[in-house]
């Protein structure tokens, strides 16, 4: 079950040139442009509908998506962030399936523009959010599910030292077919100093 309450906006979470903040209505157009400009870079990893019904990301307004994400924030079931590099929006990071009760867990997904890939932007953004989920929300566990072929995303969890738990076969419909995903997990007990500290050591 979700936390059952609206989650407080944490404001800007930052480390060096990288920051994350809750998505705003004004982010609709910058995100649309990024998705359009990065179509070939992102298409292989985009979720699709098994029925074949789909739209090209970036081809329509992002406002309905932002409305849905902010509704999840109010319900306590999700936290939608944008990723900033030098103050400019360069990607998105979404926390979903936030559960209270006996689970105290969540899932995390992300994407960034190709022009900032390989600079540690995603790794730092993920670390900032995991630390916030543990310290502010008191969660116990954060999952990141990644296709085995997605080398850039695998490097993110490897740098952060997330533990690999196994593989979920035909887990999510991605780029037109059901795809296997490997499960990586961060536990609050695994990093008493926080995950941002792990990035800083690299």
Question: What is the CA–CA distance across the termini?
Answer: 36 Å
Radius of gyration: 16 Å
Mean pLDDT metric: 90
How many helices? The count is: 6
What spatial order of strands do you see in the largest sheet?
Answer: 1-2-3-4-5-6-8-7
Structural class: alpha+beta
How do the SSEs run, as a string of H and E?
A: EEHHHEEEHEHEEH
Strand fraction band?
A: 25-35%
Explain what this protein looks like in three dimensions.
There is one protein chain. The protein has 202 residues and is of the alpha+beta class. Helices cover 29% and strands 32% of the residues. The chain has an eight-stranded mixed beta sheet with strand order 1-2-3-4-5-6-8-7, sandwiched between helices. A hairpin with a 2-residue loop joins β1 (13-15) and β2. The N and C termini lie far apart (36 Å). Residues 18-190 form the N-acetyltransferase domain.
Quick gist of this model?
The protein is an alpha+beta fold.
Note the topology.
Layout: E1 13-15, E2 18-22, H1 28-37, H2 39-42, H3 63-75, E3 79-85, E4 88-99, E5 105-112, H4 121-135, E6 141-146, H5 151-160, E7 163-174, E8 177-187, H6 196-201
Helix pairs in contact: 4-5
